[in-house]
Amino acid sequence: MVENGPKHLSDVERRRLARLEKTRLNARGRRAPAVMPSRLARTSAFAARTHSLNTDSNFKRIYIVPPHSVVEVAGRELGTRHRDMLVALFRLRARRVEARTDAGQRIVLCQTETSWRELLVASGLTVHVTNLLTALRVLQELQRVSIRVFRGSHDEFLKAESRGLLAGAGWSDALIGKIEWEGAQLDSKVTVSYGEWVRRTLEERHLVAVDADVYFRLKSDYARCWWPYIDSQPAHSWIDVELLASLAGRDYRAETTKQRVKLREEARQALGDMQQAGGLASWTEETVGSGRAKTYRYRYVRTGSPQAELPI
């Protein structure tokens, strides 16, 4: 007799089911969450600003969020509009597509099929034909960027970098591959194909759910920078100022007193923005330690309804 049941699942399958369940639980009460790779929700690879971005094709920078991620961005600097577009695309969902080349070789793609109208609505842009070129330009800027992610720990990366070595396993790829559109009307079909890493991540369920309704109600760049991390960590109830700085691509301890004061002001405004947008029920700032070791911590309570669990 053959027995069926969870006890016969492999360790890999159990971990995938556990990750999927966490994503389902975090999607409760969300009307249309953005279900996205966890590393994209918890990275500092997107600057907390819309303007004054470095567009030089030789641009290259390593972004570190200890101990969560080490990401290298090459091709140009990414900002809030690029994060907006990715949240919108993952809000519209992606699907797995199999095709064959002229030589008969099977290829597997991951695509989001939508319309210009749906993409503009999902990304919070005004639904008007004048915004089609804006949306396409942001997609093409994402397409031109190469991202390299290191899978090892933050400490392993620093040790390897100090010796001029490659830090273990990782991946390097464009987030977006091909962009196709059938016309320049609002209801024209648009298809966005993702890079190989995004496809594999979606298939392996390394995913988190981010409340996109709250995200697009946020007014400040810092709030949009920090909300995906905060909302993708349902078991967390606080975040310290050093991590907030890292998520914005900054080193809190290396900054001047004036810069630190300004960052804490940005943090308070961003958390207030999240509360105003309906993402947080409340938040408080507290001082930890004293003297040169003094730091700041922000405790928060997320809003959310236990109703309606959405399928992922």
Structure description:
The protein has 312 residues and is an alpha+beta fold. The chain folds into 2 domains: 33-208, no CATH class; 214-306, Arc Repressor Mutant, subunit A (Orthogonal Bundle), CATH 1.10.10. It has 11 helices and 13 strands. A 4-stranded antiparallel sheet has the order 2-3-6-7. A hairpin with a 3-residue loop joins strand 2 and strand 3 (69-74). Helix 9 (221-231) packs across helix 11 (257-276). It starts with 10 loop residues before the first helix and ends in a 10-residue tail after the last strand. Residues 1-7 and 305-312 have low confidence and may be disordered.
Short descriptors:
13 strands; alpha+beta; disordered N terminus; Arc Repressor Mutant, subunit A; disordered C terminus; 312 residues; 2 domains; single chain
Stretches where pLDDT is under 50 for at least 5 consecutive residues are 1-7, 305-312
Helix fraction bin: 25-40%
Helix count? Answer: 11
CA radius of gyration is 20 Å
Instruction: Give the number of DSSP strands.
Output: 13
| Termini gap | 33 Å
Report mean pLDDT, rounded to a whole number.
85
State the gist of this model:
Helix content is 37%, strand content 25%.
SSE inventory with pairings:
Layout (H helix, E strand, L loop, with lengths): L10 H16 L7 E4 H4 L18 E6 L3 E6 L5 H12 L3 E6 L5 E10 H7 L9 H13 L1 E5 L3 H9 L7 E5 L1 E6 L7 E6 L1 H9 L2 E4 L1 H6 L3 H11 L6 E3 H7 L9 H20 L3 E9 L6 E8 L10
Antiparallel strand pairs: 1-10, 2-3, 3-6, 4-5, 5-9, 6-7, 8-9, 11-13, 12-13
